[in-house]
Amino acid sequence: MKRVVALAAAVLVLAGCGSTEGAAPAAQPPAASALGSPPPISPSGAFNDTDVMFLQMMVGQYGPAAELLDLARSRSTDQKVRELAAAIAVTQADEARTMRDWLATWKQAPSPAADPHLHEGHGGLPATGPKEIEALRGAAAADFDKTFLNLLIGHQHQAVEYARMELGGGIHSGALELATRVDQTRSSEIAMMLGMVA
What we know:
This protein is mainly alpha-helical. It has a domain at 46-106 and 128-198: Ferritin, core subunit, four-helix bundle (Ferritin), CATH 1.20.1260.10. The protein is built from seven helices and no strands. The radius of gyration is 16 Å and the shape is elongated. The two termini are 27 Å apart.
């Protein structure tokens, strides 16, 4: 357990603890000019539709991510993969609680509208679903780690797109701070996993 906590802390340290379209994974957030001119940050706790959409899309990501991470912790033969999965699971569980609490406080639905056309500009609805999870569950032992890492890289890249959407159009100071952290942590995780796949 101490190793899991240490790895979770390492992931956060690596990260340095309207919508944006076509953002590519990168170690650093895009320049402000690439995001356009976001609305002024609300000091009063006010929120807008972008803040709500960001939280809903992220909450929608956590369920499939938890399943992927659970499978990795039980099936991976690589200790580094198991430790990374455990560390990410701890971080994302904390984020999910915070996001659900905000949505409940704002009296907003905990999940996004199901119409995919509403989500085209920020990476679409969460792409990891039952089909992908079943494919991972059925992967041969020799292929498991590579399959898992590739799925999680794509999953985390989508979270980066959601975060950048929020940074380009959100106004809630807490949601913007969380989006910055999501962008940085997921980008660091993607870089780490690309190295592990290689």
